[in-house]
Write a structure and sequence with these properties.
This protein has 579 residues and is of the alpha/beta class. It contains 16 helices and 12 strands. The chain is elongated and about 130 Å long.
């Protein structure tokens, strides 16, 4: 059965059950009223009918009512009995009760006109009151009303007088009017049920949204604190090292200080790259470029790149691969996942072994990164892939970080169609498994590695126009480009860049994405290209907002994200000139 049909059937069952429960509550609430009405009917009959017949009727009516009430009360507590079965039972009991009271019409031939009218009035009142009691269950109400009214209508019609016939017709009209009232009660109950369900769903959704918002606020508060700490650490180191250079710029250890400054910059860049990855994933600008790759080659190269860091911490690194295994995936994104995993393993393994394994499991490739580090407690493992979630590792002397690494891994794996599983124990290490499909026979195998490309055109003498509204950035970029042998001109806004370009004649323009007065580098490059057709362009941005990333990606311009390293800049310029 389709899910929609199952859901509709479940809601119908719930509606019927609620109607039944309401009827039970009403029946038990009017129990003593019914006993009093029964006594009054018996008292009327006592006036002219033989006492044994009246007492027999009284006992039967009370017995049927009490058995019905007890049956209803018991059914209301049974969860496994279908609602429709309960309704069918209630219908039969209402028929029995209606006939029990309807049989009091047999007293009428002995009562005379006045007492017969009194008796009829009592019974009609009972039928009218049933709308409030059984109205939500229309068929149950109709069964009771017809059972109680039909005997009286027949007795009056058999009277043979115009009065008797008229009263019988009036009773028929009364049943018709009451039925319309009961149907309206039924519809109102259904509407209230639907409204209540919608309200309950809204309350549930609002509760979930509130909890998610609270959790997000708590996580982002932790994130801001962690980001402040992790940014301050390398900036503090930069401040100390640059101060040392200013005090004695010609000291013997100047190269070591410069290397330490570069390392601190790399730490800041790595932190900002994590934020950029999240923004790209949110913006949907990160695309998977799947192609056949030799996994063993990738893993061996990755292992070699981590060996110096592993050895510096006194750890062992083990790599087990299957030569020649081919997978179809995005090599850059897969390498980013593996680098994050190995980096985490090294960071949180004080002593022991880091192991990376490639194996075949059930006709799938399984990449395993495991360590013998501090591990993750079982109750925290479901949360570690959430953004901004940080496992408290201060007790082990580690900084917490931003809580983005495993979240990025999870989302990149989803983009590549890779299943990720984590198993870990506190103080016993962590194992993360990546499952990806093996190459199919109809997928072309990777081509042999081509020889390294010949060096592209040099940068010496290359004319570059730098467009940025920050004086410090213009100065820094100009100094760097001049040391690479380029000729450089600068502009703080689009008009200044246009004026400068007329006399300078640039080959390349490097524009910041966000400029003063709500201008942007994309529009500025467009205007410069109209003035100088064939102008090569490079867009540089420090923005991580998803909408801005999408706009930059849609422009088709080559994009670099701040901070830009020397190697990134040289490669981007070479790519522009080559293409």
């Amino acid at each position: 059965m389709p899910a929609a049909a199952v859901r509709a059937d479940t809601e119908a069952q719930e509606l019927t059950e609620r109607r039944f429960q309401l009827m039970v509550v009403q029946v038990l609430a009017v129990r003593w009223s019914y006993f009093f009405m029964t006594a009054v009917v018996a008292a009327v009959g006592w006036q002219a009918v033989a006492p044994p017949w009246v007492l027999a009727w009284l006992a039967g009516a009370v017995l049927v009512f009490e058995l019905r009430a007890r049956w209803l009360a018991r059914q209301a507590t049974l969860v496994l009995v279908p609602a429709q079965a309960k309704v069918r039972g209630a219908l039969l009991w209402n028929v029995a009760l209606g006939l029990a009271y309807g049989l009091s019409a047999l007293f009428m031939p002995s009562l005379g006109l006045t007492l017969s009218a009194v008796l009829t009035t009592i019974v009609v009142s009972a039928a009218a009151g049933a709308v409030a009691i059984s109205g939500p269950l229309l068929q149950v109400y109709l069964a009771y009303t017809l059972s109680i009214m039909l005997p009286f209508a027949l007795v009056w019609a058999a009277n043979g007088t115009w009065l008797g016939t008229g009263l019988a017709l009036l009773m028929a009209m009364f049943v018709s009017v009451q039925y319309r009232f009961a149907r309206k009660v039924n519809e109102t109950f259904t509407e209230s049920f639907v409204i209540r369900r919608v309200n309950e769903q809204l309350v549930a959704e609002l509760t979930v949204a509130r909890d998610q918002a609270n959790a997000a606020n708590v996580a982002k508060t932790r994130f801001l604190a962690a980001a402040s700490h992790d940014l301050r650490q390398p900036l503090h180191a930069l401040s100390l090292q640059s101060s040392a250079l200013l005090l004695d710029p010609r000291a013997d250890d100047t190269p070591q200080i410069a290397a330490a400054i570069a390392g601190s910059i790399q730490d800041v860049a790595a932190l900002l790259d994590s934020l950029l990855d999240i923004s790209k994933l949110d913006a949907g600008t990160l695309r998977a470029d799947r192609r056949p790759i030799q996994l063993s080659r990738m893993l061996e190269a990755l292992g070699r790149s981590f060996l110096p860091l592993v050895r510096s911490k006194g750890l062992r690194f083990e790599l087990q691969v299957i030569p020649g295994v081919v997978a179809v995936t995005d090599p850059m994104l897969l390498e980013r996942i593996l680098r994050n995993l190995v980096d985490n393993a090294i960071k949180f393994t004080p002593a022991g072994t880091i192991r990376m394994t490639l194996q075949v499991v059930h006709e799938e490739l399984e990449l395993v990164v495991s360590d013998t580090g501090i591990g993750i407690a079982p109750h925290l493992q479901a949360k570690v892939f959430d953004e901004f979630y940080q496992v408290d590792r201060h007790a082990q002397g580690h900084t917490q970080g931003l809580g983005l690494g495993l979240s990025i891994i999870s989302r990149l794996a989803l983009l590549l169609g890779i299943a990720v599983t984590l198993s870990s124990e506190a103080d016993a290490g962590t194992t993360i498994r990546l499952r990806l499909p093996m190459e199919r026979s109809d997928v072309p195998r990777p081509a042999p590695e081509a020889a390294p490309p010949s060096p592209g055109p040099g940068l010496r003498g290359l004319r570059i126009l730098v467009l940025d509204d920050e004086p410090a950035v213009r100065e820094g970029m100009s100094n760097l480009l001049r040391r690479l042998g380029c000729e450089v001109a600068c502009g703080a806004d689009t008009d200044e860049a246009l004026a400068c370009a007329r006399t300078f004649g640039p080959r390349i323009v490097m524009a910041d994405y966000r400029l003063r007065d709500d201008a942007n580098g994309i529009d500025a490059i467009g205007r410069l290209r109209k003035q100088h057709p064939g102008l090569l362009s490079l867009l540089i941005s420090g923005d991580t907002a998803p909408d801005r990333l999408r706009e930059a990606a849609d422009s088709g311009l080559q994009l670099l994200h701040k901070p830009v390293s020397l190697e990134q800049l040289k490669q981007a310029l070479a790519d522009l000139l080559d293409n």
